[in-house]
Amino acid sequence: MTATGVQTRPVITGIGIVAPNGMSTDDYWSAVLRGDSGIRRITRFDPSSYPAAIAGEIPEYDPAGLLPNRLLPQTDRMTRLALIAAQEALRDADADPAEMPPFACGVVTSASAGGFEFGQKELQALWSQGGKFVSAYQSFAWFYPVNTGQISIRHGMRGPGSAIVAEGAGGLDAIAKARRHLRAGTSLMVTGGVDGSLSPWSWLCILRSGRISTSSDPHSAFVPFDRRARGAVVGEGGALFVMEDPDRAAERGAAHRYGEVLGYGTTFDPRPGTGRPPGLRRAVELALAEARTEPSDIDVVFADAAGSPELDLVEAETIASVFGPRGVPVTATKTLTGRLLAGGAPLDVATALLSMRDGVIPATVHVDSPAYEDLLDLVRDVPREQRVSTALVLARGEGGYNSALVVRKAT
Amino acid sequence: MPWAGETPAEGDKVEGTPEGRRVVITGIGVVAPGGIGRKQYWELLTAGRTATRTISLFDASPFRSRVAAECDFDPLAAGLSRRQIRQWDRTTQFAVVAGREALEDSGILGQTAPYRTGVMMGTACGSTMSLDSEYALVSDEGKSWQVDEFHGSPYLYDYFVPSSMAAELAWIVEAEGPVGVVSTGCTSGVDVLGHSADLIREGQADVILTGASDAAISPITVACFDAIKATTARNDAPETASRPFDRTRNGFVLGEGCAVFVLEELEHARLRDAHIYAEVSGHASRCNAYSMTGLNDQGLEMADAITAALDMARFDPAVIDYVNAHGSATKQNDRHETDALKRSLGSHAYDIPVSSIKSMIGHSLGAVGALETAACAMALEHAVVPPTANLTEPDPDCDLDYVPLTAREHKVDAILSVASGFGGFQSALVLNKPERRAV
Asked: How far is CA A249 from CA B24, B159, B338, B402, B412, in A?
């Protein structure tokens, strides 16, 4: 906060993306515009003995050149992906925290369940061989803030560090927390989330959520807002950002100014049976109020798109009630990646920023029988070219979490 | 002026301005080794008794370190139903029991609007205990990498995501405001309080049920600390095994437990005549950017976190009259922390009591920062500082006043509590009597 009490508006100056359909911002964005999906049959383990077998799995990649060898034995797949995204974001921003004042840069990431594949290997070692076979890295390699810690170490970031867990909504909460640190005086934050650690053990836990589509067809398994909606497909990846105090960014001549985080709201659903309304609408209203933005100023909504009929209906009704029936273009590019747990909402924020940069709303795919045509103007199958200045990103998490974020093209 | 989270809904009047909003603790609930409930907890601490024992929660005989501070916790006696006990991991059970005590203590139920109420919990290990035992079940004790989908608890997803713990508390307190989990390993309990206080100051909520819970005394946890020799192997003398700042200390004693607070905007608390334990006036965290498990020599990051937390509270170091130390009883920590206190507080560090209650309740990872905050709040209340138990042979490199062995009557108005943990996180929290701070 400045001396006058006016809230500064931190600006996003760098983007890093790892997604099932693209391992960099450019690759992801062109895949999204082409409509290339990353949803496929799982290859990291044999899924045939489980009721669901497809996911937005990130294909095998060569970590050489992307990560130092010494980090490989101590990192889960999720953390390696996070380190790749963080490096891309910092390069994109042309920022080197190690050259900035000692405590000027911090990290806040979102997490859902930690490095579960790593954790399974160590549980396997423990139970099959005994405690002496558990890795010296287990104590931190699986834990929820591991990405924050490893990013801070790799890039010499000694300011505030934290991780937020709110299932699928936590990515927006992390961005809001990073913004708070910038307003309190930190110059630069890396924030967002990269998630996904597919292994038989995490898969079993995810299946028990009861929200996973059991379809084996990658084109119809995850069809939010469709009459055939039958559950979600999960995936790996996410996005990390460099977000800066606007004055500091200007001083160092930041190359990009993708956008500003203008408003944020977070709510929790009431306990079922209370007769009280779900919290998503209020999260939207809080975000719009903080942004001092009218619904009519929003050019596109990136939907949470749960993919189950009840949750889709709540979201469709929420959007229609705030913006009017078919009052705003809505898209769900996560139909190309699956729901990336704590990484999904940050990836949607990244997609929104790229949408603003290029003046195009990317499309929702695979939705052939839209269920809420009277409520939603869903951008389907082909991107819609139009000017995008302000976007609303919605995210929900299992249990009742709702968050909403308004981003605006930087001026 | 409007601010983030302002909502005119439900006709709930928002007091103060974001600049002027202050945050206080009005309720405390505790599940700790040595006793359930804040009163038993305070008795243990002020008696200087230790709750460290040989591990009884599972057969720890194959492990290097076989000592822990376990909670003597009977979930049925603590008021949980059989269904809840079956469904919830021990971490969530602790959180619900401590949460209920805090709510009752504060008298807040029915006096806060759902939209203005939140829940923020800290944890380092989430449902590790359930995940560990469930893994043995679904993998046929590690024989099968392809875990069996026909076995295992129906609640596996709740164990998978620690956000399930905050969701359970949200239903109890009817919170429809900000809800979530803050996880920063062993600084979680301090960082979650800082985060919750920020949310209230900012105007996102007037009341937040907040704290931290960990219950990870299970084979995988013991094995992973064995692997790096972070825990003590003083198995023949479990009662005196946690020895912060003592020359003979050789690692921490794993603990478990939970503390939950009702955190409330000051005017909101005053309007309803609530009992106020303490103000939460400052918090900061730093990454050491050095190592996921190790500490660098000088304690620069912890010192900067302390200075930043004092700045936020607008306190001079000289205002602090007690330091609740991280004091984990690893040689590296105890020296690092002592250096950081001298660096940030200057010569004042020598003039005030500094104690580690981990000597009595062990190190409950993410939860311990909340348990320490509960101890600090009660130290303000009772003008008594809990001791560092087992400190009989001071480490010559640790030369502050660590309050050895016995509690001390000492008028306390402002407290610094510090935390340090894996990931490189270093955090500081400032608590004070509200009247101590003229704003």
From this structure: 36, 41, 37, 45, 43
Mind listing the domains of chain B with CATH numbers? 9-271 (3.40.47.10), 279-433 (3.40.47.10)
Which one of B146, B160, B191 has the shortest CB-CB distance to A162? B191
Strands A161-165 and A300-302: unpaired
Chain A CB contacts of B19 below 8 Å: 1, 5
Catalytic site positions of B: 186, 326, 363
**Which uninterrupted H or E stretch holds B157?**
helix B156-160
CB < 8 Å to B179, chain A:
166, 266, 268, 400-401
Q: B28-84 pLDDT, tens per residue?
A: 999 999 989 999 999 999 999 999 999 999 999 999 999 999 999 999 999 999 999
pTM, two decimal places = 0.96
What is the ipTM metric for this complex?
A: 0.97
C-alpha–C-alpha distance, residues B69 and B34, integer Å: 8
Encode pLDDT of B207-249 as tens digits: 999 999 999 999 999 999 999 999 999 999 999 999 999 999 9
Nearest CA in chain A to B6: A286
Interface contact B183-A143, CB threshold 8 A: yes
Within 66-95 of B, beta carbons closer than 8 Å to A belong to none
Q: Which domains does chain A have, with CATH numbers?
A: 11-251 (3.40.47.10), 263-409 (3.40.47.10)
